[in-house]
Amino acid sequence: MKQPIFLKPIFQERIWGGTQLSDTYGYQIPSNKTGECWAISAHPNGQSIVRYGDFEGKTLGELWSERPDLFGHFESDRFPLLTKILDANDDLSVQVHPNDEYAKEYECGELGKTECWYIIDCDEDADIIFGHHAKSKEEFIQMINEGHWDDLLQRVKIKPGDFFYVPSGTIHALCKGTLVLETQQSSDTTYRVYDYDRVGQNGELRELHIEKAIEVTTVPHTATKVEPTLAKMNGSTITTFVEEDYFTVYKWDIESRAELVQDGPFTLGSVIEGIGTLITSEGEFALQKGDHFLLPNGVETFEIEGQLSIIASHPNHKGGTQQHVAGTAKEMANV
């Protein structure tokens, strides 16, 4: 099969969610507290569905099980990645995610969660929580126990177009007024460290996971600097943001036309702006803002025409030759 598979996202309501997923992308959301669009997902807690074509109505998880050829027989017991768009209409809880080894032992075989964020849009003077100031585990525990959150948590100013790599073990939180595309391991495990003393729908304080969070948090915080690399062609730009153990993430800014080479076993794409056409050997496929698609294995080369921006990713095998941050751009274009 050499044509893209277009996927219908599902939506998750969150107490910090809003209406940006409808306002910006025109999605039909379940309420004005919709926080997450699970755009490309085969996770049991929410699976994308094929919109049309030969596999119309099937979940991505069913395709993964029934048609391993579409994914290059990628060596994993589950679909490895999850693409989300998050509407942080209010501050998210301060949280941390475990690595694979910890999650496998303590979360019933779940994957760990390394993720990354592309800031689609944000309020002026918006920030995020990214890391902490504790120099030792003892100091980390003491500051948590004494509630010294302003001293503990590290805040970073953000602007549209910023990119953050968030390995497992990193204390983090999106804050009010941000719209973010997230690429992550296919995991739904989160340990809340601090939640501003908010109550849930049951009227009680939301659960925290302090003990597990202390066990998995990296102390002292180590920020991995992202150094994007750019490849330009015919007025279009391919940016490689990160290339690490689990995934490589790109941004394709197409000004008129680009000839591209698929560099992974399969590729995930999310159109965050604009309109255009995706061309493979099997035909032409319309693209518009808010579309999400999967390029299966076998689509070796393809073209994109129009004026649009796409966040694309593909999985990598942990333990391979990948670097934590992109060093040199891959040859993505036939120029």
UniProtKB/TrEMBL annotation:
Cofactor requirement: Zn(2+)
UniProt KW keywords: Isomerase, Metal-binding, Zinc
Enzyme Commission number(s) from the entry: 5.3.1.8
Record-annotated Phosphomannose isomerase type I catalytic domain positions: 6-105
InterPro entries the UniProt entry points to: Carb_Metab_Reg_Kinase/Isom, Man6P_Isoase-1, Man6P_isomerase_Firm_short, MPI_cupin_dom, PMI_typeI_cat, RmlC-like_jellyroll, RmlC_Cupin_sf
Molecular functions (GO terms): mannose-6-phosphate isomerase activity
CDD domains for this protein: cupin_PMI_type_I_N_bac
Domain (Mannose-6-phosphate isomerase cupin) ranges: 237-315
Domain of life, per lineage: Bacteria
Pfam families: MPI_cupin_dom, PMI_typeI_cat
Reaction(s) the record says it catalyses: D-mannose 6-phosphate = D-fructose 6-phosphate
Leading EC class: isomerase
NCBIfam families (alphabetical): manA
Family: Belongs to the mannose-6-phosphate isomerase type 1 family.
Protein's UniProt name: Mannose-6-phosphate isomerase
Organism expressing this protein natively: Priestia flexa
Classification lineage: Bacteria, Bacillati, Bacillota, Bacilli, Bacillales
